[in-house]
Amino acid sequence: MSTLLIVHHTPSPYCQAMFEAVISGATDPEIEGVDVVRRAALSVSASDFLDADGYVLGSPANLGYISGALKHAFDVCYYQILDSTRGRPFGLYLHGNEGTEGAERAVDAITTGLGWSKAAEYITVSGKPEKSDLERCWELGATVAAQLMA
Asked: Which of 135, 134, 66, 70 is nearest to 101 (CA)?
């Protein structure tokens, strides 16, 4: 069985709605053989990353950057996972009330350093997520999970 790790910082109802849509897509009944593990960014460990076969990252874009919680997750795990997670697929969803470009650049830099493979286009939402935004979040979860099916 493969494992999809969803690392998220979910401080608002909008981030929560996006997170739930990602979970729903990743756990769709048509996706078989993939265990979906959810970890809050402040509680994720290097072992969680090492035990997973792919990742979805979720964060608000605070002041144009990823949340401090998601940054902290990588700060405490980066070197422990650096050589062991190369080539693994990942996806990203961001919620921002301002621009998300800085947050996207940060994730690009971190995941490039780790050697992860972008599995789907990033989902970025400003303001209240619309139905179409949540559908894209669902597709993100399903896409990354489907890539892990044995």
From this structure: 66
Strands 54-62 and 65-66: antiparallel
Average pLDDT over residues 43-67: 96
Pairing of strands 34-40, 2-8: parallel
Contact assessment for residue 17 and residue 49, using Cβ atoms and an 8 Å cutoff: no
The residue type of 95 is H
Q: Give CA–CA dist 138/21, Å, rounded.
A: 5
CATH classification number, 2-147, choose in 3.90.79.10, 3.20.20.210, 2.40.40.20, 3.40.50.360: 3.40.50.360
Band of the pLDDT at 87, cuts 50, 70, 90? very high
Residue 146, pLDDT score: 98
Higher pLDDT, 150 or 74: 74
